[in-house]
Design a protein that fits this description.
By secondary structure, the chain is of the alpha/beta class. The chain has 9 helices and 10 strands.
Length: about 270
């Protein structure tokens, strides 16, 4: 897939999570030759200052062109609106923080941005500073839509010269499920082989899927878990599981929508 992120957006509030997310966003901009759009939302309860100097200094270090934007209103609505206005290709969000918009920023707002966005959203925990995008986790389950994120995995792998660790995973231990996820796994291996993408493979059944993804990512010292939103395993990623992963996963979560136009027709490749 010949695709590069042109405009990367980050919602920024100077919390520790936002600072880590800013570094990750700048790394991504450098890898893809993208511009960074930093959106700071002033809420009714916000007492935060102006962060353009911090942002510009960081961007200069990475040699990335940054655009600082201030908006007023509800955090999730303004960031989703900025995505539409700018035509952003990717969004970064800090998923936790001890200042800034707390408690208006973390958790619910990150989840709302994931739900409202049209492009992928990468949510970053403050503990992710030392994690590298050189290793990426690609979970595959028994849903048809699970394969739709595979083209995006290729984009990320090419941009970062990364290794993708495929985790074929299901809470169901049946042979029928094993045959299905194994078939999806083989299709993905062929897709990666044709595009010269490095990968490893693991099959795990009978697990709590979100926890299995986190455990596997920690084992591989990965810097990102790539997930579809609202489709995999009968919507297991929505609701409480989504909030658990976004809020508590020490590994950044890349949430991708099946409605993403880039992925139209991607299921089954």
């Amino acid at each position: 897939m010949d695709y590069k992120f042109k405009k990367i957006l980050i919602g920024y509030d100077d919390s520790r999570a936002s600072q880590v997310a800013l570094d990750k966003a700048l790394q991504t901009c450098k890898a893809f030759g993208s511009d960074l759009y930093v959106v700071n939302v002033k809420t009714a309860k916000s007492t935060q200052g102006e962060f353009s100097a911090i942002v510009n200094e960081k961007a200069l270090q990475y040699r990335v062109k940054a655009h600082y934007i201030e908006r007023r209103g509800t955090v999730s609505k303004e960031i989703a609106g900025a995505e539409r206005d700018l035509g952003a290709d990717l969004i970064f969000m800090g998923a936790h923080g001890k200042k800034g918009f707390q408690p208006y920023w973390i958790g619910s707002n990150a989840g709302r941005v994931v739900s409202a966005s049209s492009c992928p959203v990468i949510t970053v925990h403050e503990d992710a500073a030392s994690m590298s995008f050189l290793n990426l986790i690609l979970p595959l389950d028994d849903s048809i839509e699970t394969r739709q994120k595979v083209p995006y995995a290729v984009v990320m792998a090419k941009g970062f010269n990364a290794t993708i660790h495929i985790l074929a995973v299901s809470k169901d231990k049946s042979e029928e499920t094993k045959r299905l996820i194994t078939a999806y796994l083989r299709q993905t291996e062929i897709y990666f082989d044709e595009r010269n993408v490095r990968y490893t493979v693991e099959l795990r059944q009978g697990n709590n899927v979100p926890q299995a993804c986190i455990d596997y990512a920690l084992e591989k010292k990965a810097g990102m878990i790539m997930m579809m939103t609202g489709t995999e395993s009968s919507n297991w990623f929505m609701g409480t599981y989504a909030q658990q992963l976004i809020n508590h996963s020490p590994i950044p979560i890349c949430s991708i929508h099946s409605r993403d136009m880039l992925l139209a027709g991607a299921a089954g490749y």
